[in-house]
Amino acid sequence: MAGRYVLLDQVGTGGMGSVWRAYDERTRCHVAVKVLGQHSSALLARFVREQAVRVRHPHVVAPQGWAAEDDLVVLAMELVAGGSVADLLREHGPLDAGTVALLLDQLLTGLAAVHAAGLVHRDVKPANLLLEATGDGHPHLRLGDFGVAAPIADRRFTTVPGAIGTDGYMAPEQARGAPPEPTQDLYAVGRVALDLITGLPPTHQGDVPSHPLRPLVERLLVPDPEQRLATAEAALRLLRRLPVPDADPPPVPDRLGPAPRRRRTPALPAEVDWAGWAAVTGLVAVVVGCLCVLLGWTP
Questions:
Q1: 3-state SS class at 221
Q2: Does residue 123 carry a catalytic annotation?
Q3: Are both 27 and 161 inside the same structural domain?
Q4: Which end of the chain is less packed: N or C, by CB atoms within 10 Å?
């Protein structure tokens, strides 16, 4: 693609198209690329919005380059091989309190950097929380997919009476089409926390159960944004004051495996090798002559 990205194997699908493992010829590293093929104006606008995000943080996966060729557009970012928090929940169910606290700490730290950059993510959910392949070590969370991110309080990114985000994770005011505000991401963190604690999606969640993290979750899920925790830093301070046991996380394997070997296109000769063709022709003539002798045929 565009003389830079060599697509190796498809590793998933996203809101804008397919996701591939690729080799970046410029940086000589493997990367993940979203391939936007047939696209509407809405998808193209979402692509333009995402590629403009430039947040560099250990708990954020932001775009690092893009390219276009013919009708294809690709968006490149770091390759994260451990799947997502959604995969972890699907395979292991509810997580222990220490692991939940660890993941929420990393998520809030990443969100603090995003909000400091003047952006609201607007789609915080387990499927967008990627995990490094840490094996039996502690998980390392990376917030990804900035396709619907928007500048704070920018009314151009609202769609009254519609809503931007994922049902069940959107704050009440976000679902009503309010301008983007960081507190909307914090409400989504509360929903993610309940996912981690109960193993249930928002449609099946009830009241916040008795749990070491209950004081934090209740403050995040306050319906009135004026009464909700105002910043990711405030949520982090409360989280770190709570008496939480040590984490006992499930393993996070490498879900991608080794990269396929790159296919190389053989170079074409700059000019015809007439001497080589003459040698081949002579060899063919000798073989034909031998066959004539063996078969007793005289031309």
A1: coil
A2: yes
A3: no
A4: C
